[in-house]
């Protein structure tokens, strides 16, 4: 008899503390897997309550409610005859654990707590959970809601273990454990386990997917085996976008791969796997010797009276053919990841849409283009019959909605742009670029001047202090020059929020607009922004993207989205336009900062990703930049970068929540 089975994994758009919605999405995935004759399904990490609960993990309610939902799922008639691997938190002997619940036909087979907790970068799991010691295995007293089910089960095993079905075996590891040097999957493989399950809450980062896929490839290529990977997808309310990409791999080859960016709340991947094909990858004598080590043989195995191999799979059934993994270009990641993040934020906040102050510069241009990308995705999903997207789009669009609206029509209804100019400072070119871009993507555009606001503030300050501040070009000091620039910047923030609250009403609608920020990662690191200007907003889709990558994205979008106007933004000199334009002076961002954007990107990445201090930065860059500048100039760049980074830390405490996309994204508000 051949051992062929259908295995399933999934990616779910779970919402924090949305127990009923999360349950329904899990059940939909299980039903989809069963329809494909799958006998085992893997779900994402902590999928019952959602992953990003932060300090809610310290509340008893979360644990009780999670068990209520788990009991509901495993008792459902349409969730029987399939092994279900669920993610939930559990309490055991006074400790909290991030755990997997493995169930079959209303019975809890085992609870497998997480061994290695993610506690760096964006993750703080050790604030909430305790790591489970390797090899520990004991009895767990099940809560009453499980005991009340038909089987009246009171206890189950908890710990590091494997499930031994009648015709195959599997074991679970969780997210971070894949990334650690001593990953459990290597131990399980030596112990003869054929299938390894990995449930994750892994967030999107530019250029990260290949590292994840390579780790899983290596996990199954060395000694064979099947690897199922499940991940959350979407924004659950934090600065992260979980990028799905559920995988099924066998013996180092990809059999199934979920989409990385999508507006679908539930996506299931299945594959027909031949477990007998694993044997050929496990015949080396060195592997056999390592497999007989005592530590390997100590792995606890739980026998289960269940067959993974479905009777409908015969000798004639073809296993799923391997395929090449699919990767997006970084510019495509920028177009799609932030767009999906924005859509989740919009539909969950119940806001009426977005507003962005459009300056005519490349940063706000990129934000507007990403919103247009979001509208394109929404329209594409509507055309594909996505009922959830249809319902959300109908609510946002209001009167006149139809399923054949275009991306530009949707953009016009839910997205407003506003150019807030000054007669002396704002050039005709920036004003025109803003207007033409808005027209190209269909946004509702407002072109106005803020002279009256700024002059009123100027007069009030002058009367209060007894002197009239002047711009530098008019003989003023640096302090006066900066203050007058900030009068304009902060007036724009006030007007943006006023318009955001009232534009829907002025257009016959209701509700308010979420204000989008447009400060990029490099300007945040340098502190080149004004607190409570237009960098202060509700959320910022480009807050984790470098200027260099933004330029590449705009160049790509010019062709991909058929937006020729974008070339004008690439050709323009980046400028804040906060000082008066004269015949011999036009303000330049790079001149003001003392750095090019490429230099800031390099410095930021070396500081955070490569963990170099001031001396380390100099030692690295004196060689890397030797063809462009002298050691003294390198010293000055490093010194200035660290100086401005230090004195502007206070600005980071008010930083608009920005989507995390870069390894050197500024530290968040903690």
UniProtKB/TrEMBL annotation:
Family annotation (SUPFAM superfamilies): Adenine nucleotide alpha hydrolases-like, Carbon-nitrogen hydrolase
Domain CN hydrolase: 5-275
Top-level taxon in the UniProt lineage: Eukaryota
GO terms, biological process: NAD+ biosynthetic process
E.C. designation(s): 6.3.5.1
Keyword terms, alphabetized: ATP-binding, Ligase, NAD, Nucleotide-binding
Catalytic reaction annotation: deamido-NAD(+) + L-glutamine + ATP + H2O = L-glutamate + AMP + diphosphate + NAD(+) + H(+)
Pfam families given in the database record: CN_hydrolase (PF00795), NAD_synthase (PF02540)
Cellular component GO terms, alphabetical: cytoplasm
Gene Ontology molecular function terms on file: ATP binding; glutaminase activity; NAD+ synthase (glutamine-hydrolyzing) activity
CDD domains (UniProt xref): GAT_Gln-NAD-synth (cd07570), NAD_synthase (cd00553)
Functional pathway: Cofactor biosynthesis; NAD(+) biosynthesis; NAD(+) from deamido-NAD(+) (L-Gln route): step 1/1
Family annotation (Gene3D superfamilies): Carbon-nitrogen hydrolase, HUPs
ATP-binding among keywords: yes
Alphabetical list of InterPro entries matching this protein: C-N_Hydrolase, C-N_Hydrolase_sf, Gln-dep_NAD_synthase, NAD/GMP_synthase, NAD_synthase, Rossmann-like_a/b/a_fold
Family designation: In the C-terminal section; belongs to the NAD synthetase family.
PANTHER family: GLUTAMINE-DEPENDENT NAD(+) SYNTHETASE, NH 3 /GLUTAMINE-DEPENDENT NAD + SYNTHETASE
Protein name: NAD(+) synthase (glutamine-hydrolyzing)
Gene for this chain: QNS1_3
